[in-house]
Write a sequence for this structure.
C-alpha cells in the first residue's frame, strides 16, 4: 500500500517540477521588439543597441517612410512623440526610454497603460549619449487611464 501511495506523489512532484521548469524557461524568453524608424535617423539604432545589451532582447528594425502614420495608428500622443516607435510585447515604446523602464513595464503590466514615452530626443538618454552632458527628462506612461510619470532622470551641468 505505501508503494501505491508514494508513486502518485512522485509523479505529481515530477510533473510539478517539469511545469515550473517550463514556466521559468518561458519567462526568460525575450519579448518581441519591433522598431519603426526613419531610415535617415542613426540614434534609433543606438537605442536598439541599448536594448540588446546583455542579450535579453532582439530588436527588429523596420524603416518606415511615414512615421507620423505609425505613431497615430499606435495612439502616441502628439506631445510625447520622438524619433522611433517600438512595439514591445504589445506595448508602445516611444523614443529613448531606458531599458530598465521597459523591463519594469513588461514585468508589472499595469492596467490602462498603452506604453511609455520620452518626448523629443533628450541628450544623455539611451541612444543620445554625447560625452557627459545629460538633459533632465521624464518617462511618461500613457494610455486609456491617462498619463503619469513613470520615471524621472536628472540632468547635469556639464
Amino acid at each position: 500500500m505505501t508503494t501505491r501511495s508514494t508513486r502518485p506523489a512522485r509523479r505529481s512532484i515530477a510533473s510539478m517540477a517539469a511545469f515550473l521548469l517550463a514556466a521559468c524557461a518561458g519567462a526568460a524568453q525575450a519579448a518581441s521588439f519591433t522598431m519603426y524608424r526613419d531610415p535617415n535617423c542613426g540614434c534609433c539604432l543606438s537605442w536598439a543597441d541599448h536594448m540588446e545589451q546583455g542579450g535579453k532582447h532582439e530588436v527588429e528594425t523596420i524603416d518606415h517612410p511615414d512615421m507620423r502614420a505609425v505613431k497615430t495608428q499606435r495612439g502616441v500622443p502628439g506631445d510625447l512623440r520622438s524619433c522611433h516607435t517600438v512595439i514591445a510585447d504589445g506595448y508602445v515604446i516611444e523614443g529613448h526610454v531606458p531599458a530598465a523602464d521597459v523591463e519594469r513595464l513588461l514585468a508589472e503590466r499595469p492596467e490602462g497603460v498603452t506604453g511609455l514615452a520620452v518626448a523629443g530626443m533628450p541628450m544623455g538618454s539611451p541612444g543620445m549619449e554625447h560625452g557627459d552632458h545629460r538633459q533632465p527628462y521624464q518617462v511618461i506612461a500613457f494610455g486609456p487611464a491617462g498619463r503619469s510619470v513613470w520615471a524621472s532622470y536628472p540632468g547635469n551641468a556639464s
